[in-house]
Amino acid sequence: MHRLVIGIDEAGRGPLIGDMVVTGVAVSSSVISRLEQLGVRDSKTLSPGARSKARAAVLSEVPVSFVSIYVHAAEIDSKNLNTATLEAAKRVLLLVRELAWRGGEVEIYVDEIKGAESKLRRFSMELYGDKLVVFVMEPEADSKYPAVSLASIIAKTLRDESIQPGRVLFGDYGSGYSADPKTVKWVTEYSKVSPPPLIVRRKWRNLERLAPSWWKKSARSLLDYVKRGEA
């Protein structure tokens, strides 16, 4: 009997700007080899065009269920990043269970979330009981397990798409990462003439250097973003 294989990965943990997207995919173990044939691999090794092509090919040819959670900049600022990622991964697992599980055996593969392995393992056991036969969380799982690779591709393409409206509203800020010269230029210049848009992660240390007036050492809740003169 074929097992349900679940892969979980995220995109956008580290940028100054934009959401983090946590995605879980669920496929039958019978189609894992087909994913590899369709070009599914770690999204970091693929160009944006290749990622989009692989996603389209898989979703049109392979029975796949997937769930993506968007974690907003304000939520990331109000929590530890690993905590926010773990909470999103739990929500993904809950939704995938409702969407795709039919009572059979389950394998779960997760790209590493620092300090979360035992917590997510325990949560997964609560969801699936003795039907959970494999649980793996490890670094670079997206380069080792096709289900995680597919989750990586979907998360990355959705994140890329999600930052487009902000570019229309606020100008082209590039990828949103502090290693991107276009992002650095936008943050440095825009912060001189405007309060920070809600898409900016205000607790990031790089922001203290690039835009001191935007940086906040502590940002406890969404209310912190909507006080007069700050949003």
UniProtKB/TrEMBL annotation:
* Protein task: Endonuclease that specifically degrades the RNA of RNA-DNA hybrids.
Name the keywords, alphabetized: Cytoplasm, Endonuclease, Hydrolase, Metal-binding, Nuclease
Cite the Pfam families for this sequence: RNase_HII
> From what organism does this protein derive?
Thermogladius calderae (strain DSM 22663 / VKM B-2946 / 1633)
- Where found in the cell? Cytoplasm
- Entry keyword annotation includes Electron transport: no
Biological process terms in GO annotation: DNA replication, removal of RNA primer; mismatch repair
What is catalyzed by this enzyme?
Endonucleolytic cleavage to 5'-phosphomonoester
Q: Give the GO molecular function terms.
A: metal ion binding; RNA binding; RNA-DNA hybrid ribonuclease activity
Q: What lineage, starting at the top, does this entry show? A: Archaea, Thermoproteota, Thermoprotei, Desulfurococcales, Desulfurococcaceae
Please identify the protein, giving its name as recorded.
Ribonuclease
